[in-house]
Amino acid sequence: MSSSVGWVIVNEHGKQMLALVTGGAGFIGSHIVERLLADGNRVRVLDDFSTGNRENLPELEGLEIITGDVGNFESVRKNMEDVDVVFHEAAVASVPRTISDPLGSQKTNYQGTLNALEAARQCGVRRVVFAASAAAYGDDPELPKREDMPPKPLSPYAVDKLASEYACQVYYCLHGLETVSLRYFNVFGPRQDPSSPYSGVISVFADKLINKEQPTIFGDGGQTRDFVYVADVVEANIKAATEKTAPGNTINIASGISVSLNDLLRTMCAICDSEFSPVYVEERQGDIRHSSANIDKAIDVLRWEPAVKLDVGLVSLLQRLGYEP
Ligand code: UD2
């Protein structure tokens, strides 16, 4: 049995915990790595560096970086040796890319999860925390989304994330491998890449405002999203890795508060002292209108609550990007 000291986990050999973070060089993964190291854990990153960036990772003792593909079982199995906890963040995160290349993206988004689970089972890993997605809900108009609603995946991305959740449950029920699926809503924060048209909207707006360019709003800006700051997502991962009540669950990770795109941009403009003057263009195909999460389960099961309010997170992000108030 392992025991928790603060949050640093000492395993049955009395050693510091070793965490494997797949996709550890990416946006969310790299923040998890940073926190694990700061808490005194050992960390192994497995990343193929297709979208992840080495500059996202610190040069610190206790960090091992391996270039490898989660879609390759041998690579995952080899790097699972001695691991206590897995944070499985590796994914093709672009929904349109999974539509144009469903077979290729499935290798990462579903097969990669199965590889992580099977390797974890073979190596006696204690717990696997999986980065699931609110995409599982599709465009069901019932709000806020609760975990017990029937899923309605609308893209290969959503199918792979949902199938991965089911695989996590199967490994928990059949093999007793402790698994937790966290359904992320719209995560934002430093290191989110603004460069593609499908990058998270906050990273795109921030980039435009910093460069004094006019932001674009797809549609009338009345669509809403539930944005959650990356530090809160990291904390949810830590809770998912340590709380006794977590295994076997699928849990929404969001702020529980939705905001329209117009209000979001207005807030960001106010922080940057810029005028609110977006260009409105046609609505983006496949966009859902409203998204909001019920986060009661996270509060009950993980004893987690979001701590960073949207405006505070936005100020912190814009300052990190170089904006000076
Ligand atoms: C989120 C996830 C996606 C998937 C999906 C499931 C992110 C980054 N993406 O997509 O992976 O899980 O939910 O529903 O979390 N927008 C603008 N102007 C811009 C960019 C975006 O108006 O320059 C709009 C966009 O049309 C959409 C909203 O902002 O209505 C949010 O877009 P997004 O790409 O940040 O995230 P979303 O919710 O489409």
Structural commentary:
It contains ten helices and 15 strands. It has 325 residues and is α/β, with parallel strands linked by helices. The chain has a domain at 18-188 and 229-255 and 293-306: Rossmann fold (3-Layer(aba) Sandwich). The strands form five sheets. Strands 5-4-3-6-7-8-13 form a seven-stranded parallel sheet, with helices on both faces. A hairpin with a 2-residue loop joins strand 1 (3-5) and strand 2 (8-10). Helix 1 crosses helix 7 (230-242) and helix 8 crosses helix 10. The longest helix is centred in the middle third of the chain and has 22 residues, at 102-123. The termini are far apart. Residues 93, 95, 133-135, 186-187, 198, 200-201, 204, 216-218, 223, 225, 261, 284, 287-288 line the site of uridine-diphosphate-N-acetylgalactosamine.
From the coordinates shown, what is the CATH architecture of the domain at 18-188 and 229-255 and 293-306? 3-Layer(aba) Sandwich
- Contiguous uncertain segments of 5+ residues: 1-6
**Could you say which overall geometry the principal axes of the C-alpha atoms support?**
globular
CATH fold call of the domain at 18-188 and 229-255 and 293-306: Rossmann fold
Strand content: 15-25%
Mean pLDDT across all amino acids: 94
Structural class: alpha/beta
* Sheet having the most strands: 7 strands, parallel
Q: Write the element-wise H/E pattern from the N-terminal end onward.
A: EEEHEEHEHHEHEEHEEEHEEHEHH
Alpha-carbon Rg, integer: 19 Å
Count every beta strand, where a strand is a DSSP E run of 2 or more residues: 15
* End-to-end distance: 50 Å
Helical content (DSSP H or I, runs of 4+): 25-40%
Count, helices = 10
List bound small molecules: uridine-diphosphate-N-acetylgalactosamine
Determine the CATH superfamily of the domain at 18-188 and 229-255 and 293-306: NAD(P)-binding Rossmann-like Domain
**What is the CATH class name of the domain at 18-188 and 229-255 and 293-306?**
Alpha Beta
Strand order of the largest sheet: 5-4-3-6-7-8-13
